[in-house]
Design brief:
Elements (H helix, E strand, L loop, with lengths): L3 E3 L13 E3 L4 E4 L18 H18 L7 E9 L3 H15 L6 E6 L9 E9 L3
Parallel strand pairs: 4-5
Antiparallel strand pairs: 1-2, 3-6, 4-6
């Protein structure tokens, strides 16, 4: 059973995400922040927000799969972007939103001063709910 995404009456109805989600009985998966690093530990595409966001999503998919989950199991994300410029945040959000498609789980998008790796501009952490049999 997938998570139940909650549309909250009385809140802005055109937001590109659900306002809350309810996890079914089972197990929760908490990911570390997915970073745009390759297999050798390098951050490719310095300065390219969208390209780094694409790599982050690929790495998030891999981490979730290793835990027996997928993007459709995610109940909440937090998206970190190294920028104070709203257009950079929107560029990253567009990639993240496209990856999740109609499964628009609640998310928080933040501009931050720095992240952990040299040249890193994007990080996404997620909580997923899976049912173990």
């Amino acid at each position: 059973m997938p998570p139940h995404l909650v549309r909250a009456p009385g809140l802005y109805s055109a937001a590109p995400y659900a306002y809350a989600s309810v996890a079914p009985p089972g197990s929760l998966v908490f990911t570390a922040g997915a970073c745009p690093i390759d297999e050798s530990g390098v951050v490719p595409d310095p300065g390219d927000y969208a390209a780094q966001a694409e790599r982050v999503i690929a790495n998030l998919r891999t981490a979730l799969a290793a835990a027996g989950a997928a993007l459709d199991d995610v109940v909440k994300t937090t998206v970190y972007v190294v920028s104070a410029d709203q257009s950079d945040l929107v560029a990253v959000w567009n990639v993240v939103h496209a990856a999740f498609g109609v499964h628009d789980a609640p998310s928080t998008l933040l501009g931050v001063a720095a992240l952990g790796y040299t040249d890193q501009l994007v990080e996404v952490e997620a909580v997923a709910a899976i049912v173990r049999s």
